[in-house]
Amino acid sequence: MTLILDNIAKIVSLTEAEKELFLSKIETKQYKAKTILHNAGEVCKHSYFVNSGLVRSFNINDNIVEHVLHFACEGWWIGDMYSLLSQKPGNLFIEVMEDAEVVLLSKENQEALYFEIPKLERFFRILTENSLVAHQERLMDNLSLSAEERFDKFCKRYPSLIQRVPQKQIASYIGVTPEFFSKMKSRMLKK
Questions:
Q1: CB atoms within 10 A of CB 26
Q2: Helix, strand, or coil here: 19?
């Protein structure tokens, strides 16, 4: 459990008693690759923290095309933020890509922790703000950068994911088809 406590300690300091209380409100589970943690159309009941493995969130459009929104590896949080915060059915699937150990924090326990350990509300507010900034930057990149520039930025920002994530998932994340991605990579390698 040190990874999740270290993650929290980057933003707020918890006493030993607060750490114990926090740990009593979470659940750790092992999942096999391809396990769906959350289905689109359902209300998201948990935030997920990845202790080990790799998880992604994506949606499927009307043409049955997947659009990857987010990857989460060791030390990262993931969830369907719209659904979790609004408690309305979401539009994201959350899938385990590699066998993973995942910490689940229920919405109910998260809300309880805000009252019992107020500094955790600050922690999650900052996480949410950072997520909002990253999503805004990604949206602006998608509007203004070429596919090559988006891929280059992905490689620089997430170097540990390049070897772990299938190319078709990276293509989806940067907003191109797998075929275009393959041709683009070939062109880039020739430069």
A1: 18
A2: helix
Token code pair at residue 93: 């699937």
Is the Cα torsion angle 151, 92, 86, 122 positive or negative in sign? negative
How distant, in Å, are the alpha carbons of 23, 69, 159 from that of 117? 12, 31, 35
Could you give the CA distance from residue 37 to residue 123 in angstroms, rounded to a whole number? 23
CA atoms within a 13 Å half-sphere pointing along the CA-CB vector of 73: 9
Taking CA 176 as the corner, what is the angle to CA 157 and CA 130, rounded to the nearest 5 degrees? Answer: 35
pLDDT of res. 50: 98
Query: Is 0.85 surpassed by the pTM of this model?
Result: yes
Token pair recorded at residue 65: 């095309």
Q: Would you place residue 131 in the very low, low, confident or very high pLDDT band (cuts 50, 70, 90)?
A: very high
Tokens of 171: 């293509």
Cβ-contact 80, 90 below 8 angstroms: yes
